[in-house]
């Protein structure tokens, strides 16, 4: 019996065996196409992650090295220490605030964008992405100038008589920087979701005695939920692990998880603890993402 | 008596495009009213103006005597059945139907019971928990109707309500809509591009083209006495025989034959005689009814429809279409046969541009 699917020249009546072979070949072709991505991810992500995972159960020795023996959970136990807990909570809280602010700013903009003509939209989308053309680090230093002691912001607040706004090296500065950095990640999925919504549904809502606000609450917002979820995850996850922005704008008092982990690896030379923290961070991200998807899944 | 809907001097411009051009229209309470025309004629815009989804550029628009031209849709006592229904995909049938009541602040219990009643009325009992995506086109259509009617609007607006349904379902729904309208007793204003649908369902029809209202009349009047060439051509099938008015009783056709045709035009006006295919009759050449107008020609094509035969007839100067009912014993003419086409002078109409 033939199982090779090649019918360029031969002709035959179709059989279930032929069909099965054809389907199998189709799915094999799919795997082949995905192979480069798989290999890349397995090599550079899964393997390195696995190494970090192993290290998180190891012990730091007296010389700042790591003993790959005597496996234990000590590093994970340290997470209940107040100082670590504070860093963790602060990070989650700031990431949450950042996400909410991004959502509030991005939503009206994304809606506005979706009501424009296509040509206008494209130009505005380019504007949204222009900041990416500049290095992230440089942009964060620019914020340092804006928020700094003799910067435009303090000058402005002093000028109107509000006194000097001392924002630099505060949590507020970090949130400002994070919102600035991740806003496009909220705008783009929101825009994609809102743009897809049939305008007639909003008209139907208005026709059925809904005010503008009611139409937003009961029709537009629930229908844009996929964008809200995608945008929130895209902002929350990197905010939670942010390193550059808190480092440049946050100063010493507002240590966040990203910086704390780096410190463990580079300064404290406690690789097992750093590795454990990295895994806890990933776990928080994973749980948030799942909860969010579940919640969104129900409203859709 | 005040009209349910009254438009006077309503114009709507989109930039340079005049979508609705100085329309005066009065729709009576309890009337099943059709707005008919080709796509882009302004009929949907007119409906949207009544709904409040567009604001008129100029003119007065009132519903039961109340001027509503500047009110938003939520402030108008009308509801719309949208083209393709625009059901809320994230809500169940029950929530869709209850939407309007909820928005008006009606309490939950009343909203629920009235919605359920309405769902029963449109025969969707048992489907209240479904999402629109789990329903057929016909069922979605009923949800859209229930969602609008539950609010007890003074006028129901329908935008191509049957356009998305297949032929058989469409014919069923035509009758059902008509019955529903009689039951609830309010005016239905519906937009359609399907002249057969308009003729079947409407008490009165407004024919529009290019933003202008061409004729507002009962289906019979529209069919029998079209106001102009466009209406004659758009409503049903017709043969337009070009000619010139000779006097109030006579039109001289292009080829020089004069035919009896009562008309209200002055002599010399360029007109067309509208001869419906089913009003013409074919017999062997030289035979025709006493007193009927007649022309000679030959059969070019015959299309067999079962209940009727459609003949393509070639005259010296133009082609005609003639429909003969397939009665028992009807005489069949083969392609190439020399025949005479005749018609009752009372059965035609004369139209100008």
Describe the protein.
The complex is a heterodimer of chains A (300) and B (353). By secondary structure, chain A is mainly alpha-helical. Chain A has 13 helices and two strands. In chain A, helix 7 packs antiparallel against helix 10, helix 7 (171-196) packs across helix 11 (244-250) and helix 8 packs antiparallel against helix 9 (212-223). The model of chain A has no long low-confidence stretch (mean pLDDT 88). Chain B is an alpha+beta fold and 353 residues long. Chain B folds into two domains: 5-229, P-loop containing nucleotide triphosphate hydrolases (Rossmann fold); 237-351, OB fold (Dihydrolipoamide Acetyltransferase, E2P) (Beta Barrel). Chain B has eight helices and 20 strands. Chain B has helices at 43-51, 93-103, 108-121, 137-149, 167-184, 195-201, 219-224, 229-234, and strands at 5-14, 17-27, 32-36, 58-63, 66-67, 78-81, 155-159, 187-192, 204-209, 212-217, 239-247, 250-253, 258-260, 270-275, 280-284, 293-304, 308-314, 319-325, 338-343, 349-351. In chain B, the strands form four sheets. In chain B, strands 6-7-8-3-9-10 form a six-stranded mixed β-sheet, sandwiched between helices. In chain B, helix 2 packs across helix 3 (108-121), helix 2 (93-103) runs parallel beside helix 4 (137-149) and helix 3 crosses helix 4 (137-149). The longest helix of chain B is centred in the middle third of the chain and has 18 residues, at 167-184. At the A-B interface, helix 8 and helix 9 of A face strand 6 and helix 2 of B.
